[in-house]
Specification:
Blueprint: E1 5-8, E2 11-12, H1 21-25, E3 38-41, E4 50-51, E5 58-59, H2 60-66, H3 68-72, H4 74-79, E6 86-91, E7 99-101, H5 105-117, E8 137-141, E9 145-151, H6 154-164, H7 167-192, H8 196-210, H9 218-229, E10 242-247, E11 252-255, E12 261-265, E13 268-273, E14 279-282, H10 290-296, E15 306-307, E16 323-328, E17 334-336, E18 343-356, E19 362-366, E20 370-373, E21 380-392
Antiparallel strand pairs: 1-4, 1-20, 2-3, 3-6, 4-5, 6-13, 7-14, 8-11, 8-13, 9-10, 9-12, 11-15, 16-21, 17-21, 18-19, 18-20, 18-21
Length: 395
């Protein structure tokens, strides 16, 4: 348990994934036969990583269970009940993910218990809560990454809806103009609570209105693209309600619980609490629970804060569940402290060598490869010419 170990990580195949990005990252032939959406590094029960050992691969869940304090560190093991508190991913959307929010700890616990009591299997498509954990998350762009995040100011929403020129939405905009921030909540509720046929009819009308107008604004261009990806889904109007954000490589967004968002395209490193709880509002064929979504949403207006790594190479977030650093070995000596919790190292560019100080044990990481640095491994250094994204737990 005191040695640094390479990880074998599952790839999740979802319809919105890329046929190119994850294969290119991990050095496999591309395009792939099926769309590959997410590379998971962690100990979530639905798709845990495998730890490479002399006796063969072992589930990271089992590896932690054998010696939680040695792997996680005493403080992390005690604070999080002997479980890895974060899930590390590479996300590769070729088309938009659903409009979604994530629950806080109390809502996740109550929702998970409620759905268990109702007899819903964990993989039942009607579930909102697949575990009892909250899901704050951080998305960090590896290339250009496009997202919708947080509500625009209500006057900006009003003006966008009025310029669109769809009478039913223009009428809603008039009510919003008088309602302020509370009006945003009513508008979203009114859009999502319409019956299926009315939502489809309104989505088709919006798609017809924006056709040929893509050059008028980035928002109309996104609506036109979303209407091709999700025909008949009223979620296509959300680029007028939410902030459209273009992340440059190395820039990141932190999404607290209850913050509405949708990732549109690109490749990014995603770090979150160890949860797979998603409440969806549109741009999806999956389960949508409008009442639960509205009850979870945080209706705050204004642009999101784009985060860049600080002088210590880390992205500042308020969460206790995870910490992300972007380490460039070309910028100087990179080390891992002797007194630290568990860390997962992902090489995202070039190649590096991870050397354990105690015995000079060396792990080579090429682009797309990752390793587990357990707490008991102690101090280490990273050498070579590459970039490593390091996930850990705040000190």
């Amino acid at each position: 348990m005191d040695r640094i170990r390479r990880l074998r990580n599952p790839i999740r195949e979802y319809a919105w994934g890329s046929h190119m990005a994850l294969a290119e990252l991990t050095g496999r032939p591309a395009p792939t036969a099926s769309p590959e959406a997410e590379l998971w590094m962690g100990a979530h029960p639905s798709a845990p990583s495998q730890v490479e050992t002399e006796a063969g691969p072992v589930s990271l869940i089992e590896w932690i269970r054998r010696a939680p304090e040695a792997v996680l560190g005493r403080a992390t093991a005690q604070r999080f009940g002997g479980e890895l508190p974060f899930l590390f991913k590479v996300l590769a959307p070729r088309r938009a993910l659903s409009i979604q929010v994530h629950p806080d700890a109390e809502r996740a616990r109550r929702g998970f218990e409620r759905e268990n009591a109702a007899g819903l299997a964990v993989d039942d498509p009607r579930r909102n809560y697949r575990d009892s954990n909250p899901k704050p998350e951080l998305i960090c762009a590896l290339g250009c990454f496009t997202a919708l995040c947080g509500f625009r100011g209500h006057i900006e929403v009003v003006e966008g809806l009025e310029r669109l020129g769809v009478p039913r939405l223009a009428a809603a905009a008039g009510e919003l103009r008088a309602g302020g921030e509370a009006g945003i909540a009513r508008l979203v509720g009114a859009l999502l609570a319409r019956d299926a046929e009315e939502r489809r009819s309104l989505a088709d009308e919006v798609a017809d209105v924006v056709r040929g107008r893509e050059s008028e604004s980035p928002e109309l261009a996104e609506i036109a693209e979303l209407s091709r990806q999700y025909p008949g889904d009223l979620g296509i109007v959300f680029p007028l309600l939410l902030n459209l954000v273009e992340l440059a490589p190395g820039e990141a967004l932190f999404l607290g619980t209850g913050e509405i968002h949708a990732y549109l395209r690109g490749v990014g490193v995603e770090l979150m609490a160890n949860s797979n709880n998603v409440l969806r509002g549109g741009l999806t064929e999956k389960h949508v629970d409008v009442l639960e979504l509205l009850d979870t949403l945080t209706f705050r207006e204004g642009p999101p804060k784009v985060i860049e790594p600080g002088e210590d190479a880390s992205y500042s977030t308020p969460t206790p569940y995870f910490r992300l650093e972007r380490l460039d070995t070309a910028s100087g000596r990179v080390t891992g402290d002797a007194d630290r919790g568990v860390e997962i190292l992902l090489c995202t560019s070039g190649s590096v060598h991870v050397v354990r100080e105690a015995d000079a044990q060396e792990i080579d990481l090429e682009r797309g490869a990752s390793a587990l640095a357990p707490s008991a491994a102690g101090a280490y250094r990273i050498e070579g010419a590459g970039v490593v994204h390091r996930a850990g737990v705040p000190h």
